[in-house]
Design a protein that fits this description.
8-stranded antiparallel β-barrel, 161 residues, globular, alpha+beta, single chain
């Protein structure tokens, strides 16, 4: 009798785990704070070269480094979402803090990489101050927004979707 109870219990546990995973995955996959913005809000066509398209997605901040002492500061937002064609938004507690456009990609002539400027929409609240960044990636799931100069902050993100 004990054996027959274990199998249904095991099946229940496996199914419950799968359902919980599927629900959380669907929530993460559908999480978009910029869904209401048409991709042509600021630009009529793609602003990034094919090598820069990796920037699109929902990114969760995990560290802020740099500054005068190099220690960064405590993370004060949850996500950065970047969608086609260069629309960005900073999110905290499921609230859009700031949104706008990413200024057209600019190559400096040096082999530093892609430079972007976060240009706040005139109807948006202000949140992000250090708007000029170089984009770097570690693999396909880590985004780094790096400052072009000293005593400024660098932001590090993991891809959510």
């Amino acid at each position: 009798m004990k054996r027959t109870l274990r199998i249904p219990l095991l099946i229940f546990i496996i199914l419950s785990s799968w359902i919980l995973y599927a629900c959380n995955k669907d929530r993460t996959d559908s999480l978009s704070y910029l869904g209401e913005f048409e991709k042509t809000k600021y630009f009529q066509e793609e602003i990034f070269a094919p090598s820069g398209l990796q920037i699109y997605g929902l990114w969760q901040v995990f560290d802020i480094s740099g500054g005068i002492l190099g220690d960064g500061y405590e993370v004060n937002f949850d996500y950065l979402e970047i969608k086609e064609f260069g629309i960005y938004g900073f999110v905290r507690n499921e609230t859009l803090l700031e949104y706008g456009q990413i200024g057209p990609a600019l190559q400096t002539g040096y082999d530093i990489g892609l430079k972007v400027d976060f240009v706040m929409d005139e109807t948006s609240n202000s949140f992000f101050e250090d708007r000029e960044k170089y984009v770097g990636f570690s693999g396909k799931d880590t985004l780094h927004l790096l400052s072009p100069c000293c005593d400024r902050f660098d932001y590090h993100f993991k891809r959510v979707r």
